[in-house]
Amino acid sequence: MAGYDDRDGVIWMDGKLVEWREAKVHILTHALHYASSVFEGERCYNGKIFKSTEHSERLRRSGELLDMPVPYSVAEINAAKEAVLKANGLTDAYVRALAFRGAGEEMGVASLGNPVRMAVACWTWGAYYGDAKFKGAKLDISKWKRPSPETIPSAAKASGLYMICTMSKHAAMAKGCSDAMMFDYRGYVAEATGANIFFVKDGEVHTPLPDAFLNGITRQTVIGMLKDMKIKVHERHILPEELEGFEQCWLTGTAAEVTPVGQIGDYTFEVGELTKRVATDYEKLVRA
């Protein structure tokens, strides 16, 4: 496919639909220099964005956490997403909403005089991990750790927090892996670079407590599904040495959906029946 800067279609920017190739910002846009931006990744299935309102609400919360109020209501953000999907003629697509500090009166760290801008784009996007969705992803273990919430707004889906994720994924890909698992600043299991993680042992599910990383919308959805199945879910701190005792593992995220994991470092996992059931039931839910 063509690069993301050279495609047909339209992108919603600051209340207007503009031609894809003309959706540009100035080189002195504050976000480019100081990471003053937040975003949402969403999927549209059969013409309906899954959890659209929850994503729009989180975009606004993320902006507030960065001292960067998003100048659109939840209803306006939802409408912008619907407009860009319709304008591009897409019913099954990935949707990216982005709010950021633009160019303006200030070009130092402070940016209160610069406008907060917003854009929404959408495109077709298949399985995030390719065929790993069916046979199990292979994960590296990152040398980078999710930082303490005393040092970053860990509850925000903020662009700057993904810097070490990009570095970790590049290192993983160089080793032939699909992704990397990260520990947090205390050494507990945290998440993958763009997805939350779940483990299975003796018919029960264990997942890291999201006190130093984003509590994903897909994560919350899957926990609800498991509870409806009457499967016990333990949200807790998980030590590295526990990886050896887990039988199954999967990742969750809007892009990742539910993706089985076959290996993390030297630890291996089966793509078991519970993993398959959760993946199948999630697919049914988002297309319901």
What can you see in these coordinates?
The protein is an alpha+beta fold. It has helices at residues 30-34, 52-65, 74-88, 132-135, 163-174, 217-228, 273-286; strands at residues 10-13, 16-19, 37-45, 48-49, 93-101, 116-123, 137-146, 179-184, 189-192, 196-201, 204-208, 233-236, 248-253, 257-264, 267-268. It folds into two domains: 10-123, Aminotransferase class 4, branched-chain amino acid transferase, N-terminal domain (D-amino Acid Aminotransferase, Chain A, domain 1), CATH 3.30.470; 132-286, D-amino Acid Aminotransferase, Chain A, domain 2, CATH 3.20.10. Helix content is 26%, strand content 30%. The strands form two sheets. Strands 7, 8, 9, 10, 11, 12, 13, 14 and 15 form a nine-stranded mixed beta sheet that branches. The two termini are 30 Å apart.
Could you give a short description of this structure?
The protein has 288 residues and is of the alpha+beta class. Helices cover 26% and strands 30% of the residues.
Helix fraction? Answer: 25-40%
Tell me the Rg in angstroms.
Answer: 19 Å
Tell me the β content. 25-35%
Largest sheet properties: 9 strands, mixed
Number of helices: 7
Taken from the alpha-carbon principal axes, the silhouette is: globular
CATH superfamily of the largest domain: D-amino Acid Aminotransferase, subunit A, domain 2
CATH architecture assignment of the largest domain: Alpha-Beta Barrel
- Please state the structural category: alpha+beta
For this structure, what is the CATH class of the largest domain? Alpha Beta
The CA-CA distance between the termini, in Å, is 30 Å
